[in-house]
Amino acid sequence: MAISETSIVNLALSKIGALRITNIDTDTSIAAQHCREHYGISRDELLRSHAWAFALGRSTLSADSDTPDFEWDYQYQLPADCLRVLSLYGTPYPYAIEGEKLLTDASEVDLRYIKKITDPTKFDVLFVEVLVLQLAVNLAIPLSQDVNLAERAAGELISKTKRARMINSKETESGKEVPVTWNDARKSRIPSGNVVE
Question: Rounded distance, CA 195 to CA 71, Å?
Answer without folding.
Answer: 25
